[in-house]
Specification:
The complex is a heterodimer of chains A (471) and B (96).
Chain A lengths: L8 H9 L5 H19 L2 E4 L1 H16 L11 E5 L26 H8 L3 E6 L33 H8 L5 E6 L5 H6 L3 E4 L19 E6 L2 H11 L29 E5 H4 L4 H16 L3 E5 L7 H16 L17 H14 L5 H24 L2 E5 L15 H5 L6 H6 L3 E9 L2 E8 L5 H15 L10
Parallel strand pairs in A: 2-3, 2-4, 7-8, 7-9
Antiparallel strand pairs in A: 1-3, 4-6, 5-6, 5-10, 9-11, 10-11
Chain B lengths: L4 H7 L6 H18 L34 H5 L5 E2 L2 E2 L11
Antiparallel strand pairs in B: 1-2
């Protein structure tokens, strides 16, 4: 059998349809790797071996029967443990839900099942997706495959590590303030935070409902587009999903960037460290050499991003976590970890009588100004390029005792959730052997364009070929 | 800004230890101080953004569709009695 760490979804799919490899063999190889590396990486909370093999055998039958197949058929994937899976424990990495078995599937899970993807298991995360490092998991932190002493980024920590370590070929994830893009940047991966409402939130444990975006992590831009083709679309079960028909994100992915106008927001670059800035500017130059036009722009309300986010997000968290009463499902509220309690307290305060106008309402006004910053800019430029993280992955333990400094590690990402627009993290190189990414941001529902820009850059650089040394 | 931690914990239905109360009081104070920078933004004539999508009155036909069985719906409850979720009594037997 081939070296599975070299595979992408595209490669694996063609090996399956050309019958060079059986789906069951592929599933077994990935399961074996998942299980053997999990002690070291702690990327999975639950491994669903029996289900994976059953799904894979079904794909082999469909192939033998010459049935039409989705490009995700037989592809081993991980599901962030926030995604409800019927009959399989879904913990949100919290002791509150340590024994919770959902009676239904999230819409995205149903869509992936219908596409005959193979579910290897449920990936680790910061409990209830509260965190930027993966260290807030009640089931132990996850390690970064590129440096085991460092964090993989959060909150989709296990999803990022599992893809980077080739335990799976893709993993689902959620992004409320950077939880897909930051781990993608820290683990040399492609991560999409789609437009708010592009992908259904139904059945995914809610963090902050006006900000939550449902996406995924892959090694390549092409693979990422393939997966969005399956997950995007209107859902009767989520009234905030858009009625606009999703694009085919793959069909014109090789269109290139000739004439594409790229804006560089000066507020994102002004305090950026020299070596990080150099890396991103090198990527921008590469796109320029491929025909893109580059200009400086301004998003003047950027400096208020984190402050606005840390009012709106905990407010909505406190409301969403109010449902955990220990009566209908899950354990009692005493089982919440420190970070969940901290956010419930903060949000309960900012929503409480006498403070609502000063905090939540004020933040929702500033949020409108931020969205307007973006909509105005997109009259001038087609996409915006900005750093995803101000630093490469940090050391495990480095920021755990200081919540504010942890909150500030997400400095470049939450504003995009506040604006609701889509953003794609694409790897843009390494600093001292540690991965760095950049984000390509576009107007509402411009994911197709983001993939074209990301793909054009990736074809020139192929950072995904630089694999972590963990074996 | 000083938070009345005991009051907020009661609103949130959280039981905090004395040590947690102390830690949170300090940490939340720091976060509130940080977010107070929004006071600098003039929002006098700005409408709050209620919803980012612009969608309004999204509904569906009021037609019954397949849904969870009673057994599945209550299957995760801590205590079940005759097909109901059982909870501790909240009123005294002597209450009128």
């Amino acid at each position: 059998m081939m070296d599975i760490t070299d595979l992408t979804i595209k490669d694996a799919s063609s090996l399956l349809t050309s019958k060079e490899v059986k789906a069951e063999e592929l599933a077994k190889a990935f399961l074996e790797r998942t299980i053997s590396l999990n002690k070291k990486l702690n990327s999975f909370i639950t491994v669903t071996e029996d289900e994976a093999l059953e799904q894979a055998r079904k794909v082999d039958e469909l192939i033998a029967d010459k049935q039409p197949l989705s490009p995700l058929a037989g592809i081993p994937i991980g599901l962030k443990d926030l995604f409800s899976t019927k009959g399989t424990k879904t913990t949100a990495a919290s002791k509150v839900l340590e024994n919770y078995i959902p009676p239904y599937d999230a819409t995205v899970v149903t869509k992936l099942r219908d596409a005959n993807a193979v579910f290897i298991g449920k990936t680790n995360l910061d409990a209830f997706a509260h965190g930027s490092s993966g260290e807030n998991s009640d089931f132990g932190h996850t390690r970064n495959p590129y440096d085991l002493e460092r964090v993989p980024g959060g909150s989709s920590s296990g999803s990022a590590t599992s893809v980077a370590a080739s335990q799976v070929l893709a993993a689902t994830a959620t992004d409320t303030g950077g939880s897909i893009r930051l781990p993608a940047s820290f683990c040399n991966l492609v991560g999409i935070k789609p437009t708010y409402g592009r992908v259904s939130r139904y059945g995914i444990i809610a963090m902050a409902s006006s900000l939550d975006a449902i996406g995924h992590l892959t090694k390549t831009v092409y693979d990422n587009a393939l997966m969005l083709n399956v997950t995007a679309g209107k859902d009767e079960m989520d009234a905030t999903t858009s009625p606009n028909k999703p694009d085919d994100y793959v069909s014109e992915i090789e269109k290139g960037v000739d004439g594409v106008k790229i804006g560089l927001p000066k507020e994102y670059f002004k305090d950026l460290k020299g070596d990080v800035k150099d890396l991103i500017m090198k990527a921008v130059k590469k796109l320029e050499s491929l025909g893109a036009k580059v200009e400086e722009i301004s998003l003047p309300n950027t400096e208020y991003g984190i402050a606005t986010y840390y009012i709106i997000q905990p407010s909505e968290v406190s409301s969403n976590l109010a449902r955990y009463d220990g009566i209908r499902f899950g354990n009692r509220r005493t089982s919440f970890g420190a970070e969940a309690k901290r956010r419930i307290m903060l949000g309960t305060f900012t929503l409480s009588s006498g403070y609502y106008d000063a905090y939540y309402l004020k933040a929702m006004k500033v949020r409108r100004l931020m969205r307007e910053d973006f909509t105005k800019s997109f009259h001038e430029v087609d996409v915006i390029i900005a750093p995803t993280s101000p630093t490469p992955p940090f050391k495990i333990g480095e920021k755990m005792s200081d919540p504010l400094s942890m909150y500030l590690s997400d400095i470049f990402t939450p504003t995009i959730n506040l604006a609701g627009v889509p953003s794609l993290n694409v790897p843009c190189g390494f600093l001292d052997g540690l991965p760095m990414g950049m984000q390509i941001i576009g107007p509402d529902f411009s994911e197709k364009l983001l993939y074209q820009v990301g793909h054009a850059y990736e074809q020139e650089t192929k950072w995904y070929e630089k694999k972590p040394k963990i074996d | 800004m000083k938070i009345n931690i005991k009051h907020v914990a009661q609103l949130a239905n959280l039981k905090l230890t004395a040590e947690e109360e102390k830690t949170f009081e300090k940490q939340l104070g720091e976060v509130l101080e940080y977010v107070s920078q929004l006071d600098k933004v003039n929002t006098e004539k700005i409408e709050p953004i209620g919803h980012i999508t612009g969608l309004e009155n999204v509904g569906r036909e009021d037609v019954a569709a397949p849904s969870l069985t009673q057994e599945d719906a209550i299957g995760q409850a801590a205590k079940i009695h005759n097909g109901f979720v059982a909870v501790d009594a909240i009123f005294d037997e002597n209450d009128e």
